[in-house]
Amino acid sequence: MNKRGVSEVIATVLLVAIVIVIIAIIATWSYNFVQEKARESREMLYCQQLDVAVRQACYEENTTKISIKNYKDITIEHDSMVRLEGTNSYVEVPFPPFSTIESFEMGQIELSYNKSTIGDIQKIIFFPKLSLEGKKFFCEGIENEIKAC
Q1: Domain 52-148 class in CATH
Q2: Comparing C-alpha atoms, which of 71, 64, 89 is closest to residue 144?
Q3: At 1, is the pLDDT very low, low, confident or very high (cuts 50, 70, 90)?
Q4: Cα–Cα distance, 138 to 127 (Å, whole number)
Q5: Alpha carbon separation from 76 to 17, 40, 43, 137 (Å, rounded)
Q6: How far apart are CA 80 and CA 78, in angstroms?
Q7: 27-37 per-position pLDDT tens digit
Q8: Which residues contact 113 (CB under 8 A, 6 or more apart)?
Q9: pTM score over 0.85
Q10: Rounded Cα–Cα distance for residues 64 and 109 (Å)
């Protein structure tokens, strides 16, 4: 009988090539995974360094006035968010343009809202947005009670 098949050398080379490809795929995935987790850890540590206080928060008919004090050498980006929580619902409102709160600065922000939709505002939650290594990210919210002006 004349049997023809793949020689042992070619079979071994193919197996080694397949193993190398699998190792490369796993290495690439694990590298990206570790990089992502390291970035998330750096962002979390940066957020923990932040020392911000909502010094005053009050509302009038359709306007909220908020004073925020930044106690650290970290800039709070202009596209941070404020959640206004009312008796009926809530709304998340971005900071007005060019309202960055620089290091060791007190920022005053005035936000408009629709009282008929939200109801009476009961509290605000401030979500500071920071920038680290050229990437922007939100930190955990800072909750504060609100009162009439």
Answers
A1: mainly beta
A2: 64
A3: low
A4: 6
A5: 51, 18, 14, 10
A6: 6
A7: 999 999 999 99
A8: 62, 63, 64, 84, 91, 93, 121
A9: no
A10: 8
Q: What is the 3-state secondary structure (H, E, C) of the chain?
A: CCCCCCCHHHHHHHHHHHHHHHHHHHHHHHHHHHHHHHHHHHHHHHHHHCCEEEEEEEECCCEEEEEEEECCCCCECCCCEEEEEECCCEEEEECCCCCCECCCCEEEEEEECCHHHHCCEEEEEEECEEEECCEEEECCCEEEECEEC
Q: What is the pLDDT of residues 6-27, one digit of tens each?
A: 688 888 999 999 999 999 999 9
- Name the residue with tokens 């940066």: 46
Question: In sequence order, what are the beta bridge partners of 53?
Answer: 69
C-alpha to C-alpha distance for 40 and 137, rounded to whole angstroms: 10
Q: Residue 121, Cβ neighbours under 10 Å: how many?
A: 22
Residues in the chain: 149
